[in-house]
Design a protein that fits this description.
Helices cover about 45% and strands about 10% of the residues. By secondary structure, it is α/β, with parallel strands linked by helices. The chain has a 5-stranded parallel β-sheet, with helices on both faces. A hairpin with a 5-residue loop joins strand 3 and strand 4. The radius of gyration is 23 Å and the shape is globular. Bound molecules: nicotinamide-adenine-dinucleotide.
């Protein structure tokens, strides 16, 4: 059965499908960046709301801004926005369901004006984002907007044919202001500390350069709720596609797989209304910061710890790392000794239990989250997830050993691009070239990698860190058996 609206009734056999009438649902939400995560998280919650509470105003119009989004555009258009979410439990149980909350999809590279009009339409109340850390266009060391990006320069000069999210948002908000419509909220769902504040700061930097009066209006009218999002969503594989066809007879060209755990904590701060997500388990809080910090500094940093060390060791998946006692013990020591001390109190959460649950989630043998996905875009992730923790611990004179070995491993990984057995590793990173060039100088200057100021600020000048890093990086270069070095620290 080819998955589409017409064939929905034919889908049976233990799979939950769409029980609501999708015809009259309005797209109250325009979502930019319909990757795996949006489809396992926000689109799933929105689907539940429609399924249980008939939330007619709150359908989703998917938007992709880049040529790379053509495939998802073509698949979702062919499938009338429908796709299968395959939840994989740790005990082996697999639970697929058809999700219906995405009504349609528009591709910005084909038709920028259509995207702008959709966002400027009165029915649109929220524009949400999962555009990866790189999409926010800030310099990781200074936190300031990067005006040197040629796509940003293009957008400043060409408001009617934008390429970046900032060009689109300002063009749509200008139309709304001119039409005397209320502004939409901009809801970031990316893994960035204070994601709403960052989106706001970056958009205002751009808007001020392009149209100062519009920037004043945006500052006053647009809400940017901060949120903490969580559900591990690996990249879809061919075997997921085959599984659905073999076991359920469903031909879905791009299903999504994920773990059963799901969490979304959002600040209740919206310009133009919001779905009643609290009815389906979303937590609305006045201040999301302690939750975000806990998640980024334990889960996301923990992922990077396992990913970078695991890549060098030759583990391909996160669950393979968690079958290896040295990795489990190393992760826990990092979390206990270096991440936990920098966290504030998180109301309603027992941190020991949270760390236990992270270990169990990472170990889920059905998720098979690839180490290469976790290591991708480390240059955007590590400054926020790991280097920030290291800096805070340095300032307080606390342990920095466990994070420092990971940074040294990152240098080796960026330089050699092979694991300890000589197997090639694919490096996916917007800064891959710069990382490689800096790392390759380690032989003559052991601190070359950490001298990259856009990532490390002036950390290379900190004697305690520089000395420790220098010892560790040389140890790895002399003997890439990373597990031996990890064991020595336990
Ligand atoms: P994905 O690769 O499946 O999708 C990424 C999407 O972002 C694509 O639509 C892509 O076109 C878009 N994008 C990338 N760079 C962009 C740019 N510069 N401008 C506009 N759009 C851009 O990735 P995913 O797994 O869906 O993850 C997306 C984000 O979601 C992550 O970066 C992270 O912040 C957040 N997240 C992911 C997970 C997870 O487990 N996958 C969990 C929590 C949060």
């Amino acid at each position: 059965i080819i998955l589409n609206q017409e064939n929905l009734d034919q889908i049976t056999g233990g799979i939950s499908t769409v029980g609501y009438d999708r015809k009259n649902i309005k797209s109250g939400i325009v979502h930019i960046g319909v990757g795996g995560f949006h489809r396992s998280h926000q689109a799933f919650y929105t689907h539940l709301l429609q399924e249980k509470y008939n939330a007619q105003e709150w359908g989703i119009c998917g938007v992709g801004l880049r040529e790379g989004d053509r495939k998802i555009h073509d698949v979702l258009t062919k499938q009338d926005g429908l796709y299968t979410l395959i939840v994989k439990h740790p005990n082996g149980k697999i639970e697929p369901s058809i999700i219906g909350s995405i009504g349609n999809f528009i591709l910005g590279v084909d038709n920028p004006l259509l995207v702008i009009d959709r966002m400027a339409d009165a029915a649109t109340k929220i524009v949400s984002l999962t555009i990866t850390e790189g999409g926010y266009n800030f310099n990781p060391a200074t936190g300031e907007f990067d005006f040197d990006n040629p796509a940003i320069q293009h957008d400043l000069k060409n408001p009617d044919s934008p390429k970046t999210v900032y060009g689109y948002l300002t063009a749509a908000l200008k139309k709304r202001r001119d039409a005397k419509l209320k502004a939409f909220s901009i809801m970031s769902c990316d893994n960035i500390l204070h994601n709403g504040d960052v989106a706001r700061k970056m958009l205002l930097s751009f808007a001020k350069k392009q149209d100062a009066a519009l920037a004043v209006w945006i500052e006053k009218e647009v809400c940017f709720p901060n949120s903490m999002v969580d559900r591990i969503t690996p990249v879809t594989t061919q075997s997921d596609i085959d599984y659905l066809e073999k076991n359920y007879g469903i031909k879905d060209e791009w299903p999504v797989t994920c773990e059963p755990f799901i969490q979304w904590v959002v600040e209740d701060n919206f310009s133009n209304g919001r779905p009643e997500y609290e009815k389906v388990g979303v937590q609305f809080v006045p201040d999301v910061k302690p939750y975000e910090k806990m998640k980024l500094r334990l889960l996301n940093a923990g992922h990077s710890v396992l990913g970078l060390l695991g890549a060098i060791h030759g583990h391909n998946t996160i669950n393979a790392c968690m079958e290896d006692k040295t990795f489990v013990d190393y992760l826990r020591s990092f979390m206990d000794k270096e991440a936990t001390p920098i966290l504030d109190e998180v109301k309603g959460i027992d941190l020991d239990q949270y760390k236990d649950s992270l270990e169990a989630r990472f170990a889920n043998p059905n998720i098979k989250d690839s180490v290469s996905r976790i290591c991708s875009e480390s240059s955007a992730k590590l400054p926020k997830f790991l280097i920030a923790t290291l800096e805070e611990n340095l300032a307080e004179g606390r342990s920095i050993e466990f994070a420092t070995l990971v940074i040294a491993a990152w240098c080796y990984y960026s330089d050699k691009q092979v694991d300890k057995n000589g197997q090639p590793m694919e490096i996916i990173d917007a800064m891959a070239k710069e990382l490689h060039t800096a790392a390759a100088k380690t032989g003559t200057d052991p601190l070359a990698f950490i001298k990259q100021e856009s990532l490390f600020g002036d950390l290379a000048k900190n004697e305690r860190f520089a000395d420790l890093y220098s010892v560790m990086v040389q140890k790895i270069y002399n003997d890439p058996n990373i597990k031996k070095h990890m064991k020595d620290m336990l």
